[in-house]
Design a protein that fits this description.
heterotrimer; A mainly alpha (265); B mainly alpha (261); C alpha/beta (369); B: 261 residues; mainly alpha; 76% helix; C: 369 residues; alpha/beta; D-Maltodextrin-Binding Protein, domain 2; seven-stranded mixed β-sheet; three-stranded parallel β-sheet
C-alpha cells in the first residue's frame, strides 16, 4: 500500500514517536546523572555504567534474558506460523477450540499462568531452571504469534496455494514460496511481539526459573526499592544496542549501494 | 490444501499439555476448599459465592473492565492513523518504523513506568490521566503492529482499481482499506484488551496508590494471602466474562470477514 | 559516533573499577580455604532481599573459600515462600521474623551448625532478644538486619511535640488531607491501626479487628492517603514539589536512608508502640551445601562484612560493634539507625494464617472506600 505520505500523516508519526521516546530519552539522560535523583540532573557521570558492568548478577541476567528471548522467539515463531497455517485449513470446531485456548495465557493474569506452570513442573518433579523458564516462555509466546499471523492468512487468497500446486509445486514448496512470503509481515510482527513479551516478562519467569538463573526483569523488580540509576544504565544500554543495530541495518546498505555505483562509474 | 491442516496437531498436543493442564489445576483450586497451598479434593462453590455476595469484588472487576475498554479505545484511535501512515512509508522506512515502535517494549515495564512518573511529576496532572498515559504507552505498540501488519502488503492495484472505478479517497478507505484491515484491528483488540484487564502495576505506580484492580486482587490472594483457591476463582470469573465479550467481538470479526468475501 | 564513544569509555571505566576493586578490597584476615576439599561442595545458592547486601561481601567470600555464590533476590517474603513451594532449593534464605516462624512450623529449616558459627559473639544482644521470640535458642536462625516501623515526617510542617501527643492518631488530623503516605500492605496498615487503638498487633479478636478496620476507614476518609510500598522511599527522599507529602509510614532502615539524604525529614516511633522486626539467615532442609552456608553466615557476622552490609543498605546492623561505629560515624544524628528496643508496647509479628485471611479482604475494602 505504498502511496505518498501526506503532511498530516507525517505529523501523526512524529507525535507518536515523540510519545514513545519521551520516557526513553528521560531514562537515558538520568543514567548519566551524578546523583541518584530522578528529577534533578546534578552533573554528568558514568558511575552507574561502571556499577552495572561490575555487577555479575546483572551481566548474567542480560545473558539469560537475551538467550531465553531468542530461543523462545525462534521456536514460537516457527511453531506459531505452522500452526496458524494449519488452522486456516482445518475445520471450524478445531479452529474455535484452539483460538479459545490461545486466549487463556493472554487473559489470565501473569500470576495465574505462572502458578499454573509452577504446579505443572513440580507435579512432574521437573527441576526448575533455565530450561523450564524457556519452555514457559515458548508456551506463552506461541499464542501471540498465532494471533499475529491469522489475520494475514484470512486475507490471503485461498486459490493462491492451489494454483501453486496446480503448477507443479510440492506442498512444501507452495508453503515456503507462496504462502510464507505473503504472510511475512504477520510473521515478523508476531516474532517481534513474542520477543518483546519474553524480554519483558517478570512474573512467569520468576516462578518457572531456578536458583542462580535471573532475567533482567527479576533483577529490576527486586532492586527498585530505592532510586537505582544502575537500572537506568541497564535500560539505556538496550537502547544503545538497538540504535547501533538500526543504524547498521540502514546505513550499511546505503554505503554498499554508493560503492557499487562508484565501481560502475 | 487439506494436508496443511495436519500441521496443527503438534500444537494441539503442546497446548493441551502446557496450557490446558495447568489451567485445569487452577480450575480445580477454584472449586475446592481452602487448604493452605495444598490441593484438597472437597468440592465447593464457596469461592464463587464469596465473590458475588460482596459488592466490593464485582466492583473491582467492573473498574478493571472499564479501564481496559477505555485503554483499548484510545489505542485504536491513536494506533489506526499511526499504522496507516506507517504503511504508506517507503519499504525501508517501514522496517525502521516497525523497529522503532517495538523498541520501547524492550525496556523493562517498571523502568518505563517510573520514567513516566518522573516526567508527569513536572506538571499537575490528575491520577487518572497519568494512569491512561501509562496504560496506552504500554499497549499501543501491540495495536499499531497488528493494524500495520494487515494494512501493509494490501495490493496497491486494489486501491488503483477503486480509484479507476470512480471512488474518491474516503470511499476507497471505507470500502477497500478498512474492511481489509479489520482482522488486524480485532487482533489488536485481543492483544490490548485481554492483558489490560488484569494489569495493575502501571495503575498502581501512576495512580497515586489509590487503584485497586482485579489483577491486583488476584496477585494478593495468590501471594500475600496465600489463598490460591479464592485467587483461582476470581481469575476464573474474570476469564469467563472476558471470553464472553471476546466471543461477541469474534462474531463481529466473522461478520466483517464475510463482508469482504 | 557519540554513543559508541560513551560505551567504550564506560567499558574501560568498568574494567578499571573491577581491577582496582581487586587490589583495594582487603581480603579478610582468614586464610584461603578450599570449599571443595573442606566441605565437599563449592557452590551455594543464596536468596536474599533486593538491595540488602554490601557489594564486596560475596566477592570476598568467594575468594576466601574458593567458592561460587549464586545470588538471587526477592521483593517480598511471600514471593520467596511461593518459590520454595515450587521446589527451588536454596542454601541460605534471609526471610523476616514471621516468615521464619512459618518455615519452622512447616518444618522446612535445618538446625545451624553452632560449631561453625564462631562469630555468634559479635551479635548485638538487642537483636538476639528479638530473635528469641520465634527461635528461642537461635537454633535455626541468625539475625541479619533489624528495625522498627515509624513515621518519616517533614519537620518544617509537623512538630515532634504534636507527634508525641497524638502518635498514630495524627493520621486522623484533617490538616494532613492528601499529605500522607500509607504503607500498602494489610500487615503494616493494620499494625498502625491496632497500635493506635492500644491493641496487640497479633490479635485474633473479631471486635478489635473490626475496630481497626473502622479506624483505617476513618483515616482513608479524613486524609485520603496514597497507598504505596517501596515508592515511598524516593518520594520522601527526593520530594517532588507537586506531590510532596508531610508524613509517611516507613521502615526504620528506609527511614535512615531518607534522613541521610533529606535533612527536612525526621523519624518518629509513636508511644503507643510499633512493630519491631528482624530478618534472619536460615538454611532450608533441602540445601545442597549446608556446610558452606554455615560458613557464609559466620562470614556475614564478621566486622568487615557486617559493616559493608549496613553502610550500603542503611539498615541497623546486628553486629554490636558495627552498629555502634556506624551510629557514631556515618549515621551520627540519624535516630532511625537506632530503632527503639526493649519497649514493652513494641511487638514482633507472629505468623498467623487466620489473621492474614481476615485482614486481606478488609484491607481491600478500606482502599476502595
Amino acid at each position: 500500500m505504498e502511496q505518498k505520505t501526506k503532511l498530516h500523516e507525517k505529523l501523526v508519526l512524529l507525535l507518536v514517536m515523540l510519545f514513545f521516546y519521551l520516557p526513553i530519552i528521560y531514562v537515558v539522560i538520568f543514567s548519566f546523572n551524578s546523583s541518584k535523583s530522578l528529577s534533578s540532573f546534578t552533573g554528568f557521570s558514568l558511575q552507574w555504567y561502571e556499577k552495572m558492568f561490575a555487577n555479575r548478577t546483572i551481566m548474567e541476567s542480560i545473558w539469560y534474558t537475551v538467550s531465553c528471548a531468542v530461543i523462545a522467539t525462534v521456536v514460537s515463531t516457527i511453531v506459531g506460523t505452522v500452526t496458524a497455517i494449519g488452522l486456516s485449513k482445518s475445520n471450524k470446531a478445531l479452529r474455535e477450540a484452539i483460538n479459545q485456548v490461545n486466549n487463556l495465557p493472554m487473559l489470565n493474569p501473569d500470576i495465574v499462568t505462572a502458578i499454573g506452570f509452577m504446579l505443572f513442573f513440580t507435579s512432574l518433579r521437573i527441576k526448575t531452571g533455565f530450561t523450564t523458564m524457556v519452555l514457559a516462555h515458548i508456551a506463552f509466546c506461541i499464542p501471540y504469534v498465532i494471533l499475529s499471523v491469522m489475520p494475514k492468512l484470512r486475507t490471503l487468497d485461498p486459490n493462491l496455494a492451489e494454483a501453486a500446486l496446480d503448477l507443479g509445486c510440492t506442498p512444501l514448496q507452495a508453503l515456503v514460496k507462496v504462502i510464507i512470503p505473503q504472510i511475512m509481515p504477520g510473521i515478523i510482527s508476531g516474532a517481534l511481539i513474542a520477543f518483546s513479551m519474553s524480554f519483558d516478562d517478570f512474573v512467569i519467569s520468576l516462578f518457572t526459573t531456578g536458583p542462580g538463573v535471573n532475567n533482567i526483569s527479576i533483577y529490576v523488580y527486586a532492586n527498585v526499592k530505592r532510586v537505582n540509576p544502575t537500572i537506568n544504565a541497564l535500560s539505556a544500554i538496550i537502547v544503545y544496542v538497538i540504535t547501533i543495530v538500526l543504524i547498521l541495518v540502514n546505513v550499511v546498505p546505503l554505503i554498499r549501494e554508493r560503492k557499487m555505483k562508484k565501481n560502475e562509474n | 490444501m487439506k494436508s496443511f491442516s495436519k500441521m496443527v496437531y503438534p500444537y494441539v498436543v503442546w497446548a493441551a499439555v502446557m496450557i490446558v493442564v495447568p489451567m485445569l489445576m487452577l480450575v480445580l483450586y477454584a472449586f475446592t476448599v481452602k487448604g493452605n497451598s495444598v490441593l484438597t479434593f472437597q468440592f465447593t462453590f464457596d469461592n464463587f459465592i464469596r465473590f458475588f455476595s460482596d459488592p466490593v469484588f464485582p466492583g473491582v472487576l467492573w473498574r478493571s473492565l472499564k479501564l481496559a475498554v477505555i485503554t483499548t479505545l484510545i489505542c485504536i484511535a491513536v494506533g489506526y492513523p499511526t499504522a496507516y501512515a506507517m504503511a504508506k512509508l517507503k519499504p525501508n522506512s517501514q522496517a525502521v518504523a516497525v523497529l522503532l515502535i517495538t523498541l520501547p517494549m524492550w525496556i523493562n515495564m517498571l523502568v518505563r513506568t517510573y520514567a513516566w512518573r518522573g516526567i508527569l511529576s513536572f506538571g499537575s496532572f490528575s491520577g487518572e490521566f497519568k494512569v491512561y498515559v501509562g496504560m496506552v504507552y504500554n499497549f499501543l505498540p501491540f495495536m499499531i503492529l497488528q493494524i500495520y501488519t494487515s494494512l501493509s502488503k494490501i495490493d496497491p492495484s486494489l486501491i488503483t482499481a477503486a480509484h479507476d472505478l470512480g471512488a474518491d479517497n474516503t470511499q476507497t478507505f471505507r470500502r477497500v482499506i478498512l474492511p481489509l484491515s479489520l482482522p488486524g484491528v480485532v487482533s489488536g483488540i485481543t492483544l490490548v484488551f485481554l492483558p489490560a484487564v488484569s494489569s495493575f502495576f502501571i495503575p498502581k505506580l501512576l495512580g497515586g496508590g489509590q487503584y485497586v484492580l482485579i489483577g491486583n486482587l488476584i496477585e494478593d490472594y495468590f501471594i500475600s494471602t496465600g489463598d490460591w483457591n479464592f485467587g483461582s476463582a476470581i481469575s476464573l470469573i474474570m476469564a469467563v466474562i472476558i471470553l464472553i465479550s471476546m466471543y461477541v467481538t469474534r462474531r463481529l470479526d466473522r461478520y466483517t470477514a464475510q463482508e469482504d468475501e | 559516533m557519540k554513543t559508541e564513544k560513551i560505551l567504550k569509555s564506560a567499558v574501560a571505566a568498568a574494567a578499571a573499577i573491577t581491577l582496582t576493586g581487586c587490589g583495594s578490597s582487603s581480603t579478610p584476615q582468614t586464610e584461603t580455604i578450599d570449599a571443595q576439599t573442606e566441605f565437599g561442595c563449592s557452590t551455594i545458592n543464596i536468596y536474599n532481599w533486593g538491595e540488602y547486601m554490601g557489594e564486596d561481601v560475596i566477592p570476598n567470600f568467594e575468594k576466601t573459600y574458593n567458592a561460587k555464590v549464586n545470588y538471587d533476590m526477592f521483593d517480598s517474603n511471600e514471593n520467596m515462600y511461593t518459590r520454595l513451594l515450587g521446589g527451588s532449593s536454596y542454601d541460605l534464605l534471609v526471610p523476616s521474623d514471621y516468615m521464619i516462624e512459618r518455615l519452622l512450623k512447616e518444618d522446612l529449616l535445618q538446625p545451624l551448625d553452632k560449631e561453625a558459627l564462631t562469630n555468634l559473639g559479635n551479635l548485638d544482644p538487642e537483636a538476639v532478644e528479638m530473635q528469641k521470640v520465634y527461635d528461642p535458642d537461635l537454633a535455626y536462625s541468625v539475625p541479619y538486619f533489624r528495625g522498627s516501623v515509624g513515621f518519616v515526617y517533614n519537620k518544617n510542617n509537623i512538630s515532634e511535640a504534636e507527634l508525641e501527643e497524638k502518635g498514630w492518631n495524627i493520621l486522623l488530623d484533617e490538616k494532613l488531607d492528601n499529605k500522607v503516605f500509607m504503607y500498602d500492605s494489610q500487615r503494616d496498615a493494620f499494625m498502625v491501626a491496632f497500635k493506635a487503638l492500644g491493641y496487640s498487633m497479633n490479635t485474633d479478636n473479631e471486635e478489635e479487628i473490626e475496630a481497626a478496620y473502622e479506624w483505617l476507614r476513618k483515616v482513608h476518609q479524613t486524609v485520603h492517603p496514597a497507598y504505596v510500598t517501596d515508592e515511598v522511599i524516593d518520594a520522601m527522599a527526593y520530594p517532588n514539589p507537586n506531590e510532596a507529602k508531610d508524613i509517611a509510614v516507613v521502615y526504620s532502615g528506609d527511614a535512615a536512608y531518607i534522613l541521610s539524604i533529606n535533612e527536612d525529614m525526621g523519624y518518629f516511633e509513636p508511644k503507643q508502640g510499633t512493630n519491631i522486626w528482624s530478618d534472619g539467615m536460615v538454611i532450608p532442609k533441602n540445601a545442597g551445601c549446608p556446610a558452606l552456608a554455615n560458613e557464609f553466615i559466620n562470614f556475614v557476622l564478621e566486622y568487615d562484612s557486617s559493616y559493608d552490609n549496613s553502610i550500603t543498605v542503611g539498615y541497623t546492623s546486628t553486629n554490636l560493634q558495627v552498629k555502634e561505629d556506624i551510629a557514631n560515624g556515618e549515621y551520627a544524628g540519624i535516630n532511625a539507625y537506632l530503632p527503639r528496643s526493649g519497649y514493652d508496647k513494641d511487638e514482633v509479628f507472629r505468623y498467623n494464617d487466620v489473621l492474614v485471611q481476615k485482614l486481606s479482604e478488609r484491607w481491600t475494602k478500606v482502599k476502595l472506600d
